Amino acid sequence: MLVLNDDLSDFARAIVRGEEPSSRVVTSYQNYSVAIAIEVYRNNYRGNLHDTLAGAYPVIEQLVGKDFFRLLTRQFIGQYFSRSGNLHHYGAEMAGFIAAFEPAQGLVYLPDVAALEWACHCAYFAEDAATLDIGKLAQVPPEQYPDLILHIHPACHLVRSRYPITAIWHAHQPGASGDFHIDLDSGASNALISRKNDVVVVSALTEGDAAWLQGIQAGTSLGEATATTLEHYPDFNLQTALLKLVAQNVLANFNLGAAP
Amino acid sequence: MEKPANDSLPCIAGIGLRAPHYCEVLEKLPKLGWVEVHNENFFGGGASLRTLLKVREHYPVSLHGVGMGLASTAPLDQAHLSALCRLCDAVQPAAVSEHLCWNSVPDMTINGPMVINDLVINDLLPFPYTQEALSHVARRVDQVQEKIGRRLLVENLSSYLSFTSSEMSEGEFLSELSRHTGCAILFDVNNLYVNARNLGVDAKAFIKALPAEAVAEYHLAGHSIRDGCLVDTHSTQVCAEVWELYEFALQHIGPRPTLIEWDSDIPVLAVLTGEAEKAQQRLEEYHACFK
Predict the structure, then answer these.
(1) Does residue B33 belong to any structural domain of this protein?
(2) Which of residues 37-66 of A touch B (CB under 8 A)?
(3) Is the separation of the CB atoms in A194 and A155 below 8 Å?
(4) What is the pLDDT of residues B91-145, one digit of tens each?
(5) CATH number of the domain that B27 lies in?
(6) For residue B101, is it within any domain?
(7) CB nearest to A41's CB, from B119, B123, B227
(8) What residue ranges in chain A does DSSP mark as E strands?
């Protein structure tokens, strides 16, 4: 291992944990102390991560207020380290963190809103992919439909919640009407996140459509996903679901699956 | 429209392009020599990449990375490097640059037995300038250059502390790195000024010692002061002392593509283009190339 690694690790501990820097750090500077220097790095470290979380979770910040959000991010940053040089990867564990975060226990819907925001964040940075070519699909002989494996666009996510998170999310978007009177008991919501003309959109799916999409996301064939969905949701209509999902750029491509 | 040449930046002033100005730039197409963007904001597809590709139709683009960690002791992040390659393929940039810094260690022990693996500190961190570090960084620069298939520009850092174990100055390290790897040098004048004030680096000696032929770009930015420490916040105008050092660099190194960087408290576009104009005037005074 490189000697360099010892210096970097000591420096990292000073930044992340506030420990004394290594003896190989120059301790005397003209205009400030080494403690100030470390504090500047500590501030940069925490500030960058806080700003990243604020960028990814603007609705959470609005819902809990700036001060509470700062408390929350401080705890989160202490618990979850960054693992990527790309800051946009930081903050994935927020929904689970909030679910276990004692001071936020009263806000039961908060973890699911965080999951929805993370999905939007990932959708924004997702790779491009061609959307489903309906013409090509039409050329598949009908007897092969059940074996079709549909591919989901990389920007597509589904977040299912007991709470009306889609309505909550929409009420906190720039330019929203300001109607925050959302009945928490108004029922479950299936938030579909996708990208249309490069804009991340959040729409609501019915239970049946969501169950079917979840099956497709899991890689089950069109026939199997449809049969399973119909067992639980007899009203499920494949054609309607397909039209809606194609319109939302959810489906990317298909293949014929494994031969029987 | 023909895309601008993609092999090198024009020897004129450009600006760092950030999100608050995307729309205005695309709408008004102001007279800008070129623009520089932070790579990581354009990894992936969607709106960001599409915006950058539109910008690219009108201006040469320089891709400036803040996350590669050339001096990190954790392995080079291959996914990050691949994302950069895809971005290069899409954008056909006029330059690709990174910082002479580290951001990651492979495993860090804390509180005795607890180990954090692949910790990343998302900042631009200094390290001791040793022969060992030079071989290490050179290997990584070679890897990056091989993967992206072009010369990398490596930028000197602003630092708030230094190491007793350093065997050479940052300037010597950069020069050696360039000699070993063929990488170019992105000389950030404000960073040098920050180090002169913070660490007592002799700024003029640094400039005189740089291999002029390896310097391919200048950066200019503003800093702020916290408790006596100059912090490279890119939040204000370029100060008079940095303009002076820039003029000194123009004399000793020569005119090079020059960027105005501004990353926090971002002002209206006109302020940025005004700063770029000041750089352009100086470039022209020092017999810069004319279009």
Answers:
(1) yes
(2) 37-41, 44-45, 48-49, 52
(3) yes
(4) 999 999 999 999 999 988 776 677 888 899 999 999 999 999 999 999 999 999 9
(5) 3.20.20.150
(6) yes
(7) B123
(8) 149-152, 157-161, 189-196, 199-205, 251-255
